[in-house]
Amino acid sequence: MLGDPTPTLTLPRQRGREVGCNEFNKLMAHFQMKKMQSNQRGIALILVLLMVSIIVALTIQLNRSQRSEIYEAANLSDGIRLRYVAQSAFYAGEAILLTDKNAFDALTEDWAKTEMLALKSEGLFDNASFRLLIEDEGGKIPINRLISGNGYNTQIRDLLLRLLAGPFFRLPQRQAEEVIDAIKDWIDADDEVTGDGAEGGHYADLDRPYAAKNASLDCIEELLMVKGVSRELFYGTGETAGLVQCLTVFGDGRININTAPKAVLRALSAEMTDEAVNRLDEYRRDEKNDLAALAWYSRVPGTAGLNIPTELISIRSDIFRITAVGLQGRMMERITGIVKRETGGRKVILLSWRVE
C-alpha cells in the first residue's frame, strides 16, 4: 500500500487548490470592490466638477444679466434726464421766438444766435448741457408749391432748376430737370408721367415696391422716396449743399430773403452771381443795416441789375424748425420740431415733433 499515493497526497493538493482558488476569488472580489469604489469615487468627482461648472456658469450669467440690467436702468435714467434737458432747450427756443416783436425776421435777431445760450446751459444742469438751433423755414423753397393744378408753377420750377444746376449743387441740366419732373409726379394728383419723371409704374418695379404718393409732401424726408433723389443729394456732401437745407414743405410760396441759405439766394435770380450772393449775405448779417424794407437788396453795392420778382420774396416768417439736443458725456438726446408763430407773436403752435 506504500506505493499508492492517493490516500496521502491527492486530498491535500485538492484542498490546496480549493484554498488557492478561494483566496484568489476573494482577492479578485476585493480588487473588483476596490475598482468599483474607485470608479464610483471618479464618477462622483466628475459629477461634482460638472455641478461646480454649471453653478459657476449660472453665476457668471446671472452676474452679467444683473450688470446689464443695472446699466440699462442707468442708461434709461440718463436718457429720460437728457430728454427733459432737450425739452428745456426746445421750450427756450419757443420763448425766444415769442420775444421777437420785429416786423421782419433776420439772421441778426436773437433766435438766430443761440450759441451763448448753449454755453450758459452748462451751468443750468448737473453734468449736462444742451445745444439749440433755430432755423427759418420761410427762407427755404416751398416744394409743395411746385405744382399749380396738375401743371407746373413755372416760377418755382425755374427757381428749383437754378438751384440744382447752380454752383451749390452742380447737377447737369438734364439731371436737374429729371429730378424736378420726378418731384412733380410724386406730388401731383394724376398718374401721367411728366417728361423724365416717374409715376406708380416706376416705383412698383423696385426691389422694394411702393406707390407714388400723388399728394403734397408731409415732411421733407419724403423726397428720399422720389426717383433721382439720392441721400447725397438730399443731405449734401462735404463739397455740395443738401436739399434738406434748401427746401421746405411749408410756406405760401414766398421766400424770406433775410434768412434764405446762400444756395437759395443764388437761385432767386438768373442774374445772380457768386459775388452778389456774398455781398447780400454780408449786408444782411450786419446789425447796423435796415432789413425791414423788401427792396433792401437793391441798395447793396455790386447787385445792380438783379431782377428778383417781388411776389417771390418776403422779409417776414412764421414757420421755424427748432433742433434741441441734450448732452451728457457721450450721450445725447435730440428733439426736432416745427413750430408756427402766430401773427403778433402771442403764441407758438407745434406742427410736428420728433425725438431721436
Describe the structure.
This protein is an alpha/beta fold. The protein has a domain of 46 residues. The chain contains eight helices and ten strands. The chain has a four-stranded antiparallel sheet. Strand 9 and strand 10 form a beta hairpin. Helix 3 crosses helix 4. The radius of gyration is 41 Å and the shape is elongated. About 2% of the residues have low confidence.
Can you give keywords for this protein?
356 residues, alpha/beta, four-stranded antiparallel sheet, two-stranded parallel sheet, elongated
**Rounded mean pLDDT score:** 86
Instruction: Tell me the major beta sheet.
Output: 4 strands, antiparallel
Total strands: the figure is 10
Strand content: 5-15%
The CA-CA distance between the termini, in Å, is 120 Å
- Helix and strand succession? HHEEEEHHHHEEHHEEEE
Helical content stands at 40-55%
Q: Order of strands across the widest beta sheet?
A: 1-8-9-10
Helix/strand-derived class? alpha/beta
How many helical stretches? 8
Radius of gyration: 41 Å
Morphology: elongated
Poorly predicted regions are 6-13
